[in-house]
Automatic annotation (TrEMBL):
PANTHER family: LIPID II FLIPPASE MURJ (PTHR47019)
GO BP annotations, alphabetical order: lipid translocation; peptidoglycan biosynthetic process; regulation of cell shape
Family recorded in the similarity comment: Belongs to the MurJ/MviN family.
Alphabetical keyword list: Cell membrane, Cell shape, Membrane, Peptidoglycan synthesis, Transmembrane, Transmembrane helix
Domain of life from the UniProt record: Bacteria
Regions that span the bilayer: 103-123, 143-165, 177-197, 203-222, 243-266, 286-304, 325-345, 357-377, 398-419, 425-445, 457-479, 491-512
Subcellular location: Cell membrane
Protein name from the UniProt record: MviN-like protein
Gene Ontology CC entries for this record: plasma membrane
Amino acid sequence: MTDASAEGRRAQATSGKALARSAGVVVGIRGLDFGLSFLVSVLLANRFGASGQLDAFFLARRTTVGFADTIRKLVGQIVLPPVLAAVDRGEAPSLRHLPRRMAWFFVVFAGVMLAGMLVPTVWAKLFAPGFRGEQQALTATMMRIMLPLLPLALVASLLAAVLQARRRYLLSEGTNLVQRALLVLVLALFVPPLGIIAGAWTMLIAGVVGFFILLAGAWSIVRPPPGHAPAEPPADVPETKGGGLAAAVVINVYFQATALLDFAFATTGGDGGVASLEYGSRLVSLVPGLVMSSLATVLTPELIRAVQQPDRVAAAAGIQRFQRIGVFAQAPVSVGMMLGAPLMVSALFGHGAFGPQAIASAAACTAGYAAAAIFLAPMSAITTSIYADPHASALRDLAIIAVIGTVVRVIVLAIAAPIWGAPGIAYGAAVATALTFVVAQIIAARRFHHFHMRAQLADLAQTFACAGIAAAAGFALLWLVPNPHKLFGELALLCALGALIVVVHFAAAVMLRVPEMAALRDIAMQILAKRRSRRK
């Protein structure tokens, strides 16, 4: 092995220690964003409670900001694999690395956005079939205000993909803090006299400000340095079977459609159903989602590299490793969220216009979505792997997952929503996500022939056993400690519950010899060895 090839491998491979450091940066930034998001939720709950106005705002935000998030994921999924390959080859990212059909996506996207701005009432009727009269008109007005966020999300996602490929997470993640801080400021000072419409305008203004901050900061990183020019034209990269615009659209539309289905069913109930689902999904996206999204941001480039390597055995092993990491990190957080949901909702929203019935409904929705997050983590690893796999077309397999997942979701929600309302929708989402994960796992095992399913099931069973032991310890704590009725008591018990579940989960993992604990131990030993060498 030559020195050049060894150096190239070291440049392309990321050690566990580097991954842990990058994940720590992302978790730290998103933790701050997590705190500001809590402030936003508390301010909205205090001002509007579980009212029809808040239902309209959340529905409008879901169909605009939610679509913007989907666009970011979609563009990132399309752009990241070729950009990663270009960066690894030492090339500067350029427009020629984008798929050829990307222009058609831009045209269709622009048409949909213009149609939404011209006839927002049609969108409101489509996504909120249960809204009527003034509530429907309010939803349409706020949709029109926030729709310009979509093109901003398109360009921002291109910049973020390049930053992610170069492992630059601070700028793209920190931009969200600015947007959230502006929203907190306006909600605290101006929304009470101006009303819920001010929240929609603030979402738009914060998005514009955040975009220009990202553009100004990322431009020097994204553009080639002055005088940088390859000595010879870069060689053409052969076309592969994986990826594709259609496949990316299918899987991202599926994930967005599942969320919109939940809220569409919620609009058929009474006032407060949409707000309960929004608070439940928001809390889960902020707490368990903080873990999953942070890991995804750091691990996705490494997962893509693992899948695209020529060694198919190593590729399958890499996919299974990332699945295990996702489940192992997600399980204790989701378990703690399920047990502590009543305490968390009561502490955050148990004052102002948010009454006891709304608290109970939001807590149940939080627990349901927290359960769904456990299965969403490994399923996302599968869909990302299928899309990035260069050895076979991704469209067929992803379409099967999307169609079956959507049908299962509709059937489960149609049964659960009329009987149990918003909590039934959240728990129905968990059941549907678990069933879809099983389908995705079967497809992945057939596609990646070197999957060791028995070993994988044994590892997942160990992780779920650790989570079960931690859940039993948390339940015992809640049973022994009387229910506090004051804010500081609720927060103290919530912190104790979270700490206990994490400690018991990791202790059980050590006893059961879960592979992820061995990896964490190796990282810790490397850090300790490095510190000892510095002292000497």
